[in-house]
Specification:
The protein is an alpha/beta fold. The protein has a single domain (8-58, 69-124), classed as Roll (2,3-Dihydroxybiphenyl 1,2-Dioxygenase, domain 1). Helices cover 19% and strands 37% of the residues. It has three helices and eight strands. The strands form two sheets. A four-stranded mixed sheet has the order 1-4-3-2, with helices on one face. Strands 5-8-7-6 form a four-stranded mixed sheet, covered by helices on one side. A hairpin with a 5-residue loop joins strand 2 and strand 3 (40-47). The radius of gyration is 16 Å and the shape is globular.
Length: 139
């Protein structure tokens, strides 16, 4: 199996996060591990060929919204960032930044999920050489 990096995000309510991430951002549930008391301990979601894991960290955890601070940001490339943005808005996502062309070649928007995790979604519009954010290179 090739090496991969898979974000593992912690949620106070994993079951609600699974549902919301599917509705707002298009993730599909692949796996759900539920404890005897009914809480979701671990889940795996997929968007296209990529995955993200979700987990329940226990009672002492405070998500970004309750903590009052951003702790990480997940960046996801999608085929059509503008259509993805419209889906997120329709699902009630809190938008931090509307779609915008970035100097590093992506068209990107940022949104928070209900527990305050920050997500970026982007479509690569052009390739940019290292250290040259001003010049356009054919994709």
């Amino acid at each position: 199996m090739p090496q991969r990096i898979v974000p593992y995000l912690l949620y106070e309510d994993v079951a609600t996060a699974i549902e919301w991430l599917g509705r707002a951002f298009g993730f599909e549930e692949v796996l759900r591990v539920t404890a005897e008391e009914g809480d979701v301990n671990h889940a795996e979601l997929r968007l296209g060929d990529e995955s993200v894991f979700l987990g329940d960290p226990g009672d002492d955890y405070r998500g970004p919204k309750r903590l009052g601070a951003r702790t990480a940001q997940v960046h996801v490339h999608v085929d059509d960032v503008d259509a993805h943005y419209e889906r997120a808005v329709a699902a009630g996502a809190e938008i931090r930044q509307a779609p915008e062309d970035m100097p590093y070649g992506d068209r990107r928007y940022d949104a928070y999920d209900p527990e305050g995790q920050l997500w970026s979604f982007a479509t690569r519009r052009r390739e940019v050489a290292p250290g040259d954010w001003g010049a356009e290179t054919p994709a």
